[in-house]
Amino acid sequence: MRGTQIRSVLLFLLLFLAVYVSLGDGISPEEAKELREEAREMFYHAFNGYMDNAFPLDELRPLSCAGEDTLGGYALTLIDSLDTLALLGDRQRFATSVEWLGKNLRFDINKTVSVFETTIRVLGGLLSAHLIASDYATGMRVPSYDNQLLNLAEDLARRLLPAFDTPTGIPFGSVNLLHGVDKHESKITSTAGGGTLTLEFGVLSRLTNDPIFEQVTKHAVRGLWARRSKLNLVGAHINVFTGEWTQKDAGIGTSIDSFYEYLLKAYLLFGDEEYLYIFQEAYAAAMHYLYHDPWYVEVNMDSAAIVWPLFNSLQAFWPGLQVLAGDINPAIRTHAAFLSVWRRYGFTPEGFNLASLSVQHGQKSYPLRPELIESTYWLYKATRDPRYLDAGRDMIASLQYGTRCPCGYCHISDVEQHKQEDHMESFFLAETVKYLWLLFDLAVGPDNLVEKGPYKYIFSTEGHLLPATPQISLVREHCLYYGAYCRSGDLRQTYFVPKSDKDKKESNDTIFYDSWTKDTYSSDYTTFEPSAVSGSIKGFCPGLNHGQKFGLLYAHSTDERQDYETNQVQQKESTTVESHSVLVLRGQSSDHLVPEYGSDRNDGQTHESDGTP
């Protein structure tokens, strides 16, 4: 038996090495153009199938050519597809879709929705489309557009805000758009669910000049990080009331993935060094405790003992994140390992057991996920290595021959049998075909909004385009510039301070606070005056480490809290993470936000989940 296992390991290593060392057959410019057009045709086959058979329901059933409501019943797939239409240069359909949504979309409905999914798919889709439709510089401005999507985005976000009314600041997983959080709502949420909201809410704050959206999502990140282990690892699920981890498995995949992603991307988009510091600490811990070159495992967050030697498909975003972080070499090796699984089955199963080298029982499906394709795009952009074009060609072939259905593209319920399932997630149009098209457009010689547009773009975890405009990325510098016009006229930075624990009941009943329904600063906030310095942080003792400068402390357990309170040492409530306001004015232009990678570069400056935690 042992000999058989050793043989299996050796065979799989040979498979991995064959993928890793191959430079590919090479793809000519003509073939790259054909593959780009094939990716475009894939998008329209699915998009037209949705519009003809499912719209205005949320998602398409591509086998039966019908529709279904899966999230909130508000044309989810159309919203998720908007910036892909713009990226493809389809002005007519983009404008028609924007106009229809502006007239017909509404969120005052009695629906309980996922805070995470609604944020990344709907809020992100609306914000990205607004930024494209309202700006002449994008070449896609809609003449009749008058901020309708921005108004809808703000309305939606305010309906999500009651979810953040918890002692820890970490939001509930679900909220009713009409009534707030149900009193029976689960207090358990995933780390990704609580920590993957900063981009969309932060952009909204900058566009509406209302800080509450950014404040609550940053407080949620602080709440999660304050409860990290001594190893700087976070678990998968947490109680939003007590702050206790209910699942202590630490990893880079399911339930945690995009927490890491948004730490780096929030820094790249907003220039907030607090996010960069947390990312650096979290990334270093992940590489030390989770990385078993070239794979990643799940470990106990306290002891680092391996609990799950599993590759799950959501891990496949990681090499792309490493490209944005400038850590190219491990990204190349890990991508090659992940790709070997794709080529073995034609797709990546939800789970692949690294001990048995087989598909994990109960995790045999492939729901059209984009993560490996996304990482392939970023690695090609960083290295210009033709092996990534070969990988993209294989992926198109797998999708075309294995998942194409009469009206769209189907889930694969079993990657070993290639059995189709009658469902198509909206992220197939928002991400999967988008990254395929971008990959081959880059190979041809890009002429699109991302590569040649007026701004650098950050991709959200749903693949939505968020531009690094001065209003979004340089808001404080813009407002401090002499003579600049800023709507608030107030440069003070405010931070949301939740009610203390003693004022919280063990109930999920929520209130729509005035500050969540008005465009004003409320007395419920504590305001600190930032010091404006150019290019560096000043005013702190040089002996402090970066965490102490930002006040990033650990949250104490219940027993520890009682001891501190007894000795009158702890001066703040146990669930409040101490923070200091720091204003950093960067001397560089916003061009540093997303680096351009040439074919001779293997490093870069310091960077999802399709969206399913």
TrEMBL record:
Q: Where is the active site?
A: E117, D257, E350, E371
Q: Which cellular components does GO assign to this protein?
A: endoplasmic reticulum quality control compartment; membrane
- Cofactor(s) in the UniProt record: Ca(2+)
Q: Which InterPro entries match?
A: 6hp_glycosidase-like_sf (IPR012341), EDEM1/2/3 (IPR044674), Glyco_hydro_47 (IPR001382), Seven-hairpin_glycosidases (IPR036026)
Q: Where in the cell is it found?
A: Endoplasmic reticulum
- Molecular function (Gene Ontology), one example: mannosyl-oligosaccharide 1,2-alpha-mannosidase activity
- Show the ranges annotated as biased composition (Basic and acidic residues): 598-613
* Assigned keywords, A-Z: Calcium, Endoplasmic reticulum, Glycoprotein, Glycosidase, Hydrolase, Metal-binding, Signal
Q: Which domain of life is it from?
A: Eukaryota
Query: Where are the stretches annotated Disordered?
Result: 587-613
Name the EC number(s): 3.2.1.-
**UniProt GO BP:** carbohydrate metabolic process; endoplasmic reticulum mannose trimming
User: Principal place where this protein is found?
Assistant: endoplasmic reticulum
| Keyword check for Glycoprotein | yes
UniProt keyword Glycoprotein, yes or no = yes
**Alphabetical list of Pfam families matching this protein:** Glyco_hydro_47
Signal peptide range in chain numbering: 1-24
- Binding residues for Ca(2+), per the UniProt record? T461
Q: Which family does it belong to?
A: Belongs to the glycosyl hydrolase 47 family.
Name of this chain's protein: alpha-1,2-Mannosidase
Source taxonomy: Eukaryota, Viridiplantae, Streptophyta, Embryophyta, Tracheophyta
